[in-house]
Design goal:
Largest sheet of chain B: 2 strands, antiparallel
CATH class of the domain at 12-250 in chain B: Mainly Alpha
Strand order of the largest sheet of chain B: 1-2
Shape of chain B: globular
Strand order of the largest sheet of chain A: 3-2-1-5-8
CATH architecture of the domain at 12-250 in chain B: Up-down Bundle
Order of helices and strands of chain B: HHHHHHHHHHHHHHHHEEHHEEHHHHHH
Family (chain A): Belongs to the cytochrome c oxidase subunit 2 family.
Strand content of chain B: under 5%
Strand content of chain A: 15-25%
Radius of gyration of chain B: 27 Å
Main location (chain A): membrane
Shape of chain A: elongated
Largest interface: A-B, 94 and 90 residues
Distance between the termini of chain B: 71 Å
Structural class of chain A: alpha+beta
Pfam families (chain A): COX2, Cytochrom_C
Oligomer: heterotrimer
Number of helices of chain A: 10
Number of strands of chain B: 4
Number of helices of chain B: 24
CATH topology of the domain at 12-250 in chain B: Cytochrome C Oxidase, Chain A
Radius of gyration of chain A: 26 Å
Number of strands of chain A: 12
Domain Cytochrome c (chain A): 231-323
Keywords (chain A): Copper, Electron transport, Heme, Iron, Membrane, Metal-binding, Respiratory chain, Transmembrane, Transmembrane helix, Transport
Structural class of chain B: mainly alpha
Chains: A alpha+beta, B mainly alpha, C mainly alpha
Chain lengths: 323, 822, 123
C-alpha cells in the first residue's frame, strides 16, 4: 500500500534529509527553515486528505445503494468538493503570503554579487575597501543576513542552495535580489536549477558558512593578491602564462588577468574545483587539467591531454600554492 | 448510404470518415506515446546509477527535451482530438463532424509534423533546449542548433492542426447535435469538448505568436529576447506559459470527461450534480488562464504579482474538487461492478488526487522557491498528468474498444496491466518527491555519488520498467489478433449514450438514422430508441442524391435548421497537409525559395479543396428527411457551419494577434519609454492613411455583399476591393520603413515590424478570399440566395479591420499619449 | 424560418460573464501592480487601494448577475432539481443554475485575488 511506503521513505529519507548538503530540510538557513515550517504541516495534511478521499471512494463503491444516497451525494459535493477545498486553499494562500512577507523583510548586513556564467559562478563581495573577486565558492557569516545580487550575461541560470533557502533565477538584463541568513556553520551544496545548456548538470558551487570573525579574516585574506610563496614558483607561473591559462583566468599579482573564466587568485583556499565538481586535491587538479571535457562535457575550458608530466607537476604545484 | 463508403485499397488513405481518421489519429498518437515512453526509459536508465555514461550529455539533453515535447504535443493533446473525432459524432447522433476534410487535414499535419520532430533524433539533430525552450539559450543558434528550429517550426505546424481540430469540434458540438438535444440535455462529454476546444483556441495562439518571434530572432536576428537590444527573455516565458498552463487543463479535462461518460454506464446511475460538473468545467477553463506565472515564481517578479497567481493557482483547486466529488457521489448512488475501466478510473483518482495535493503545495510561493525545477516538481507533474490523463485514457481504451473494433479486451490481461502500471508508476514517482527534497534539480544528465541521490534514483528506474511492462501488456492485448473471437454485443456496458445505438459490424456512416432526443441518457430514458434508430425509422436514413448529408441544428435548443452536405474522400487534403508541412520543414533549413514554392502548392491545393467541396448550389432547395421533416439544403451567414468555423478561427487568430500586442505593451511596461529615446515612431498620418485604405477595401466587400441581387455590382466590388487593400499594406510598410526602423537594432523596431508583417500577411489572405469570392460569383457558384463564401469573407475582413485599427492605435496613437516621443 | 440567436436569448451570456469579470479583475490587478512596481518600486498603497476598489466593483457586478441567474433558476437552492426535461423552461433553469454556481465560484476567486494586495506594503 502507498501510505506505509511514504512513511517509510520519510523516515529513511529524513535521516539523509537532515544531513544532506543539498537538502531543503537541512535547516542551515533561516529562509530554508521558514519553508520547512510549511513542509511538515503540508505533508501531514496532504496524507490525511488523500486517505480520507480514498476511504470515501471505497465506501462509495462498496455501499449498497439506498434511497437517501442522492441527498448525501449532493451534500458531499457541496461540502467535500466545494467548501472544504475553498477553506483549505484560502488558508494555504494566506500562510504562503505571510511566509513570503517574512522572507522579504530582512535587512542585510553584507552584499554579494553572484554572476552566473556558462557553467560557473563569479562571486564578488562588496566591502568598504572595494570589491573582492572570487569564484564558485560563497562564504557567508553565521547569523548575518546577506543580500545576494544575482545576474547573468549569457543565458538564464538559477541560484539554489537548498540547505539555506529557495532558488532565484539569474536572467540576462535583470538583477534579482535574494537574502540568505545562515544559522548552521558548515559546507553546503549549491547548484544551478535552470537548464542552461550543455554542462548544466555540473554547474555547482559551495556555500561555506563561517563564524563572523573567521569570515572577516577570510575576506581580508581573499582581497589580497596571490600568496608570495606561489609567485616564487617561477616555472609553474610561466607555464601558467605560456599555456594560455592567463587568457581566461586571473591570478592577482601576476600578469594573468583573464576575465572569461573563474578568478584563481586563492584557488587552493577553496574546497572544490571545476565549479563545485571535484574536491580540491593534487590528483583531481591533474585530472581536471588533462581531462577537462571528460570530467565536465561541454565545458568551455580546453583539455591539456598532452601536457608533459613535468610541466603538469609544476603547474599543479603552482596552483596548489595559491592559498 | 453508399456515399459514406471509404475508398478501397491504397486509396483508403484519402478517406475522410471520422471513424477512420479518428482511428488513425489514435494509433498515431499512441505510436508517439510509445516513442516518448522509450525515451523515458532511456532517461531512467541513464539516471539509475551515479556518474553513468550510458548516454552522452549531448544525447541526454536531446532525449529529455524530446520526451517532454512528444508527450505533450504529440500525445496528450492529439489524443484528446483523436478520441473526440472518433466518438463525438456518434455520441451526437451525427454522421460525421461538419468538416471531414478538415479532420483529415489535421491528422495528416499531425502525422507529418510529428515524424519530422521525432525523426530528428535519428540524425542527432533533435531539439535540446528543454521542452519550454527558454531564450536566450534557445535564441542563440550557436548553442542550440537546428533542433530548436525543428522544434519551433515543427510544433507550430502541429499547433495549426490542433487549432483546426478545435474549430471543428466546437462547431460539431454547437451545430451538429441531434434534434431535441437542448443544451441542458447535452452529454457531459460534449460540454468538456466544447470547453477544451475553446481553451485551445485561446491558449495555443499566444504560443504560435511566441514561436514566430523566437524563430524571427533565430533566423533573422530580430531583437525580441535579447536584453542588450531592448528585448527581454521573460517575454517568451509569459507567452509560453500563457499557453503552457491552460495546456495542463486541456490535457486533464477531456480525460475527466471520459470518466464522467463511462461512470454512469459502469455504476448504472446518472451523474449526480450534472450542472455542478458543467460549472467546474467552465470554471477550471477560465481560472486556468490565471495560473501561468506560477511557472515563473522564481524569476524575481514583485511579491504582489506572485501573490495574484498564487491565489488563482489555489482557487482552481475548488472547481477541480467539485468535479471529483461529483464523480464520487455518482459512485455512491450507483451499483458499480469492478471492471477494468473502473479499475483504471480508480487508479486515476488515487494518483490524481495525490498530484493535486502536491499541486496546491507548489502553488504556495515560498514552497515553490524550493520545489521549482527540482525532482519534486517532476514527481508532481507526472502524478497530475498520468493520474489525470493516462489512467483515464487507458480506462477509455478498454471501455470503447468494442465500439471501435467490435471485439472486447481480455479482463485478465487488463487487471494485470492495471496493477503493473499502478505499482510501477508509484514506485517510479513517489520516491521522486524525496529526491527533489534532497536537492536534485531536473534536467541533469548525471549526478555524483556524493550527492546521495542514487538509492532513490535506482528505485525510480526499477519502477519505470515495471510501468513499461504494464503498458506493454495493455498494448499487446489491444494489438493481438482477435479474429476467432465472436463479435461483441452492440452495447456491452449497457451504456446510456447514443454512440452505442450502433450497427454490428460497424458501418462507415455512423448512426443509421438521426433520432429526436428528449433526455440526458437517451438509451436508458427513451425505451426502444436504439431499435428505431437501427431500423432507419428516424431522420435522414438515406440520401436520394447519394450525397453525404447531415442535419444541422441550432445552438441552444437543437432545432433542425438545414441539411448540410459534407464532402467525401479526396487526396487534396493530403496534398495540402504535405505542402504546408513542406513549407515549415524547408523553412527550418532556410531553403526560402523552395519554401515559397511549397507555399504556392499549398495555396493551390487549398483553393481546389474549397472549390470542389460541397458548398455549391444544391440540386433542390429542400430535403425531405423523413417523418415529415423538410429542411433547406443550403445556409449562409450566421446559421451556417462555415460562418461559425470562420468566426471561431478568427477568434483564435485574434488571440495570436493579442499575443503580439502583449509583447508591445510588455516592452512598454519594462522600458518606461517605448519607442526608446532617439527613435521616432512611424508617422501617425501615414499609418492613418494605410488603415483607411484597408477600411476602403473592407467597405467595398460589404457593398458587394449588400448588392448580391445586382450581380455586376457585386462582381465589380469583389474584383476591385484588392486594390485599396494592397495599397494600404504598402503604405503601412512604407511608414515603418521611412521611420528608419531596423528590426535587428532594437525590440521596438522589431515589434513594430512584426505587427506590420502580421497585418500584411492577413491582408494577403484577405485578397485571396476576395478574389475567390469573385471567381465563385463569376462561375455562378454563388448568387443572391447562395452567398455563403462572400459572407464568410466579409466576416474575415471584419476581424481584419479590427486588428488593423488596433495596430494603428498601438503604433500610431499610443506613443503620443504615453509620452514616448523624444 | 428564423431561429433565436444565442445573443437574443441572453442565457449564454450570464454563464460567460461571471468568469469574464474574474478574468478582467485579475488582469487589471496584475497590470496595475506590474506597472506600479516597474515605475515606482516603492510603496504599494495607491495600487492596493485601486485594486480593492476594483474588487468591490467586480463583486457587485457578479452579485447582480447572480440575482438574474437565481431568478432564472427559480431561487437560490432547489435541492434535487436536475433541469433535465425537454422544455425551454428546463434549459433556462439549467443555464441559470450553472450561472449561479459560476457566480459563487468567481466571487470566491475574485476575493482570493484581492488578498495579496492587502498583504504587501512594498513591491
Amino acid at each position: 500500500m502507498r501510505m506505509p511506503k511514504h512513511i517509510w521513505l520519510a523516515l529513511v529519507g529524513g535521516l539523509a534529509g537532515c544531513d544532506g548538503r543539498h537538502s531543503w530540510l537541512a535547516g542551515a538557513g533561516a529562509e530554508a527553515r521558514l519553508i520547512e515550517d510549511l513542509f511538515w504541516p503540508f505533508l501531514i495534511g496532504a496524507v490525511a486528505i488523500w486517505t480520507a478521499v480514498m476511504v470515501f471512494a471505497v465506501i462509495a463503491f462498496r455501499r449498497r445503494p439506498k434511497g437517501s444516497d442522492e441527498r448525501i451525494g449532493r451534500a458531499i459535493i457541496l461540502w467535500g468538493g466545494g467548501v472544504l477545498p475553498a477553506v483549505v486553499v484560502a488558508a494555504l494562500l494566506i500562510t504562503g503570503l505571510l511566509t513570503l512577507r517574512a522572507m522579504a523583510s530582512r535587512p542585510s548586513a553584507l552584499t554579494v554579487h553572484v554572476d552566473a556564467e556558462q557553467w560557473w559562478w563569479r562571486v564578488i563581495y562588496e566591502t568598504p575597501d572595494g570589491k573582492v573577486f572570487s569564484a564558485n565558492e560563497i562564504r557567508l557569516p553565521l547569523g548575518k543576513t546577506t543580500l545576494l545580487m544575482l545576474t547573468s550575461d549569457d543565458v538564464i541560470h538559477s541560484f539554489w542552495a537548498p540547505a539555506l533557502g529557495g532558488k532565484l533565477d539569474m536572467i540576462p538584463g535583470r538583477t534579482n535580489r535574494m537574502t540568505l541568513t545562515p544559522v548552521r556553520t558548515g559546507r553546503w551544496g549549491g547548484l544551478c536549477a535552470e537548464f542552461c545548456g550543455a554542462a548544466h548538470a555540473q554547474m555547482r558551487f559551495e556555500v561555506v558558512v563561517m563564524e563572523p570573525d573567521a569570515f572577516r579574516d577570510w575576506l581580508v585574506a581573499e582581497s589580497e593578491p596571490a600568496a608570495p610563496s606561489a609567485l616564487r614558483m617561477e616555472r609553474g607561473l610561466s607555464l601558467f602564462l605560456d599555456e594560455g591559462c592567463a587568457a581566461c583566468h586571473t591570478v592577482r599579482g601576476t600578469q594573468a588577468n583573464g576575465r572569461v573564466g573563474p578568478d584563481l587568485t586563492h584557488l587552493a583556499a577553496r574546497g572544490r574545483i571545476g565549479a563545485g565538481l571535484l574536491a580540491l586535491s593534487d590528483a583531481n587538479l591533474r585530472r581536471w587539467i588533462t581531462h577537462t571535457t571528460d570530467v565536465k562535457p561541454g565545458v568551455r575550458m580546453p583539455s591539456y591531454p598532452a601536457m608533459p608530466p613535468d610541466d603538469l607537476d609544476q603547474i599543479t604545484q603552482f596552483l596548489m600554492a595559491l592559498e | 448510404m453508399a456515399a459514406w463508403q471509404p475508398p478501397a485499397g491504397w486509396r483508403r488513405i484519402s478517406a475522410v470518415n471520422n471513424s477512420l481518421i479518428g482511428k488513425w489519429y489514435l494509433l498515431t498518437a499512441f505510436a508517439f506515446f510509445g516513442f516518448a515512453g522509450v525515451l523515458a526509459l532511456l532517461i531512467r536508465t541513464q539516471l539509475a546509477v551515479p556518474d553513468n555514461d550510458f548516454l552522452s550529455m549531448r544525447f541526454y539533453n536531446q532525449v529529455f527535451t524530446l520526451h517532454g515535447t512528444a508527450m505533450m504535443f504529440l500525445f496528450a493533446i492529439p489524443i484528446f482530438e483523436a478520441v473526440a473525432i472518433l466518438i463525438l459524432p456518434e455520441m451526437l447522433g451525427a454522421r460525421d463532424l461538419p468538416f471531414p476534410r478538415l479532420s483529415a487535414f489535421g491528422f495528416w499535419c499531425f502525422a507529418i509534423g510529428g515524424v519530422f520532430v521525432c525523426g530528428s533524433i535519428l540524425f542527432d539533430a533533435a531539439p535540446d533546449g528543454g521542452w519550454f525552450m527558454y531564450p536566450p539559450l534557445s535564441s542563440d543558434p550557436g548553442q542550440t542548433g537546428i533542433g530548436t528550429d525543428i522544434w519551433l517550426l515543427g510544433l507550430s505546424f502541429i499547433e495549426v492542426a490542433s487549432i483546426a481540430a478545435a474549430i471543428e469540434l466546437i462547431v460539431g458540438v454547437l451545430k451538429c447535435r441531434p434534434p431535441g438535444m437542448r443544451i441542458n440535455l447535452m452529454p457531459l462529454y460534449c460540454w468538456y469538448v466544447l470547453v477544451v476546444a475553446g481553451m485551445i483556441l485561446f491558449a495555443f495562439p499566444p504560443l504560435i505568436a511566441g514561436d514566430l518571434l523566437l524563430e524571427m530572432e533565430r533566423a533573422f536576428g530580430w531583437a525580441f529576447f535579447d536584453a542588450d537590444r531592448g528585448g527581454d527573455p521573460l517575454l517568451w516565458q509569459h507567452l509560453f506559459w500563457i499557453f503552457g498552463h491552460p495546456e495542463v487543463y486541456i490535457i486533464f479535462l477531456p480525460s475527466i470527461a471520459l470518466i464522467a461518460t463511462m461512470l454512469p454506464a459502469l455504476s448504472r446511475a446518472p451523474v449526480v450534480g450534472h450542472s455542478w460538473v458543467v460549472l467546474s468545467a467552465i470554471g477550471v477553463a477560465f481560472l486556468s488562464f490565471g495560473l501561468w506565472v506560477h511557472h515563473m515564481f522564481t524569476t524575481g517578479l514583485p511579491d504582489i504579482s506572485l501573490g495574484f497567481f498564487s491565489a488563482a493557482s489555489e482557487a482552481v483547486a475548488i472547481p477541480t474538487g467539485i468535479q471529483i466529488f461529483c464523480l464520487l457521489a455518482t459512485l455512491l448512488v450507483g451499483r458499480a461492478k469492478l471492471s477494468v475501466p473502473l479499475l483504471f478510473a480508480g487508479g486515476a483518482l488515487a494518483v490524481f488526487v495525490f498530484g493535486g495535493l502536491t499541486g496546491v503545495m507548489v502553488a504556495v510561493v515560498p514552497f515553490d522557491y524550493q520545489a521549482h525545477d527540482s525532482y519534486f516538481v517532476v514527481a508532481h507533474l507526472h502524478y497530475t498528468l498520468i493520474g489525470g490523463m493516462l489512467f483515464p485514457v487507458f480506462a477509455a481504451v478498454c471501455y470503447w474498444y468494442p465500439f471501435v473494433t467490435d471485439r472486447v479486451l481480455s479482463e485478465r490481461l487488463g487487471r494485470w496491466s492495471f496493477w503493473l502500471i499502478f505499482a510501477g508508476f508509484n514506485i517510479t514517482f513517489l520516491p521522486m518527491h524525496w529526491t527533489g527534497i534532497l536537492g536534485m534539480p531536473r534536467r541533469v544528465w548525471t549526478y555524483a555519488e556524493e550527492m546521495g541521490w542514487h538509492g532513490l534514483n535506482l528505485t525510480s528506474t526499477i519502477g519505470s520498467y515495471i510501468l513499461a511492462a504494464g503498458i506493454a501488456v495493455l498494448a499487446f492485448d489491444v494489438l493481438r489478433p482477435k479474429g476467432r473471437q465472436s463479435p461483441a454485443p452492440a452495447d456491452p456496458w449497457g451504456a446510456p449514450t447514443l454512440e452505442w445505438a450502433r450497427e454490428v459490424p460497424r458501418r462507415p456512416w455512423g448512426i443509421r438514422s438521426v433520432p429526436v432526443i428528449s433526455s440526458r441518457y437517451p438509451l436508458w430514458q427513451q425505451p426502444g430508441l436504439a431499435n428505431e434508430v437501427l431500423r432507419g425509422e428516424w431522420f435522414l436514413s438515406d440520401s436520394p442524391d447519394a450525397d453525404r448529408e447531415m442535419i444541422v441544428t441550432d445552438i441552444l435548443d437543437a432545432r433542425p435548421m438545414f441539411v448540410q452536405r459534407v464532402p467525401g474522400p479526396g487526396f487534396v487534403t493530403i496534398l495540402a497537409a504535405a505542402s504546408l508541412g513542406a513549407v515549415f520543414i524547408l523553412a527550418t533549413f532556410h531553403l526560402w525559395l523552395a519554401a515559397v514554392l511549397a507555399g504556392a502548392v499549398f495555396l493551390v491545393a487549398t483553393l481546389r479543396w474549397l472549390w470542389t467541396g460541397a458548398g455549391g448550389l444544391p440540386s433542390a432547395p429542400t430535403r425531405d428527411c423523413g417523418r415529415g421533416l423538410v429542411l433547406p439544403l443550403y445556409a449562409s451567414g450566421n446559421g451556417s457551419v462555415g460562418w461559425w468555423a470562420m468566426f471561431i478561427t478568427m477568434i483564435g487568430d485574434s488571440t495570436a494577434f493579442a499575443g503580439l500586442v502583449f509583447a508591445y505593451v510588455f516592452f512598454w511596461t519594462l522600458h518606461g519609454s517605448f519607442p526608446p529615446p532617439g527613435t521616432a515612431p512611424p508617422a501617425a498620418v501615414t499609418l492613418w492613411l494605410g488603415t483607411a485604405l484597408l477600411a476602403g477595401s473592407w467597405g467595398m466587400l460589404v457593398a458587394a455583399s449588400a448588392a448580391m441581387s445586382r450581380r455586376v455590382v457585386a462582381l465589380c466590388c469583389c474584383a476591385l476591393a484588392p486594390l485599396p487593400a494592397g495599397a494600404g499594406v504598402a503604405v503601412l510598410a512604407g511608414a515603418a520603413w521611412s521611420a528608419g526602423l531596423d528590426p535587428t537594432r532594437h525590440a521596438y523596431d522589431a515589434t513594430v515590424w512584426v505587427l506590420t508583417l502580421w497585418i500584411g500577411a492577413h491582408v494577403a489572405g484577405g485578397i485571396v478570399m476576395q478574389l475567390y469570392s469573385w471567381a465563385r460569383l463569376l462561375a455562378r457558384h454563388m448568387d443572391a440566395d447562395h452567398d455563403a463564401e462572400l459572407r464568410n469573407t466579409v466576416l474575415y475582413w471584419n476581424f481584419l479591420i479590427v486588428q488593423a485599427a488596433a495596430t494603428f492605435a498601438l503604433i500610431g496613437l499610443f506613443p503620443l499619449v504615453s509620452g514616448g516621443v523624444p | 424560418m428564423r431561429y433565436p440567436r444565442i445573443i437574443d436569448d441572453g442565457s449564454v451570456w450570464i454563464v460567460i460573464v461571471p468568469p469574464l469579470i474574474w478574468a478582467l479583475h485579475f488582469l487589471a490587478a496584475y497590470w496595475i501592480a506590474a506597472v506600479w512596481c516597474a515605475r515606482e518600486a516603492g510603496s504599494l498603497t495607491p495600487a492596493a487601494w485601486s485594486i480593492i476598489v476594483l474588487t468591490i466593483l467586480a463583486l457587485v457586478a457578479i452579485s447582480l448577475i447572480g440575482r438574474v441567474a437565481a431568478v432564472r433558476y427559480g431561487g437560490f437552492t432547489r435541492p434535487g432539481r436536475e433541469s433535465a426535461g425537454d422544455t425551454q423552461a428546463d434549459r433556462r433553469q439549467f443555464l441559470g443554475h450553472v450561472a449561479l454556481l459560476l457566480c459563487v465560484l468567481n466571487a470566491a476567486a475574485v476575493m482570493m485575488t484581492a488578498i495579496p494586495s492587502v498583504m504587501f506594503g512594498r513591491c
